[in-house]
């Protein structure tokens, strides 16, 4: 990771890794092809067969919908469509814990369902609010905001924050 921020804790790390599979600032995308997406999933512990084009599109759709949702963009319709495809109705575990199980049990479907369920459950607890998207539109790196006030807006002050401050300074002093 090129940024100095530590990874998100616990299960939120899964969402952070999915969203950051594209490093837009460096024009890198680990999910650009079905082959690279399959390799990325396997490297992240998801035992999948080679992805079909449809599965690949669904993976990309989930990543971008989650990233846009984290950035504060209205994505309720898209999230609901994904939930209809990926999630079964809510249930309770043997321990009495509420769960949103994936609709299908294949490893790929389970992974996508778990990611979407995580958006829902961490949204209920407020923990999702700590996952932020860098305000630099060229970057959009997802990071976990550990600041007490939860008001971080840049993935890194050394990269995106400094660049934005310099742009602001130059625009004020341009003549």
Question: What structural keywords apply?
Answer:
175 residues, two-stranded antiparallel ribbon, mainly alpha, globular
Task: Please compute the radius of gyration using only Cα atoms.
Answer: 18 Å
Overall geometry: globular
- Percentage of residues in DSSP E strands: 5-15%
Q: Helix count, per DSSP?
A: 6
Q: What is the helix fraction of residues, given as a range?
A: 40-55%
Spatial strand order of the main sheet: 1-2
Main sheet record: 2 strands, antiparallel
Number of strands: 6
Q: Pairing-aware structural class of the strands and helices?
A: mainly alpha
Mean pLDDT: 90
Descriptive report:
The protein is mostly helical. The protein contains six helices and six strands. The strands form three sheets. It has a two-stranded antiparallel ribbon. Strands 3-4 form a two-stranded antiparallel ribbon. α3 crosses α4 (76-86), α3 (53-70) runs parallel beside α5 (107-125) and α4 crosses α5. The termini are far apart.
């Amino acid at each position: 990771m090129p940024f100095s921020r530590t990874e998100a804790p616990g299960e939120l790390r899964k969402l952070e890794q999915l969203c950051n599979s594209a490093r837009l600032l460096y024009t890198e995308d680990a999910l650009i092809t079905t082959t690279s997406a399959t390799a990325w999933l396997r490297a992240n512990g998801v035992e999948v067969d080679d992805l079909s084009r449809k599965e690949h599109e669904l993976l990309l759709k989930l990543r971008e919908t989650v990233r846009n949702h984290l950035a504060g963009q209205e994505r309720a319709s898209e999230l609901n469509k994904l939930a209809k495809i990926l999630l079964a109705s809510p249930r309770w575990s043997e321990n009495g814990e509420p769960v949103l199980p994936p609709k299908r049990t294949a490893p790929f479907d389970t992974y996508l369902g778990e990611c979407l369920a995580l958006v829902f459950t961490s949204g209920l607890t407020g923990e999702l609010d700590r996952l932020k998207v860098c305000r630099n539109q060229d970057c959009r790196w997802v990071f976990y905001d550990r600041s007490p006030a939860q008001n971080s807006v840049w993935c890194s002050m050394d990269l995106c924050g400094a660049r934005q401050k310099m742009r602001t300074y130059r625009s004020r002093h341009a003549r």
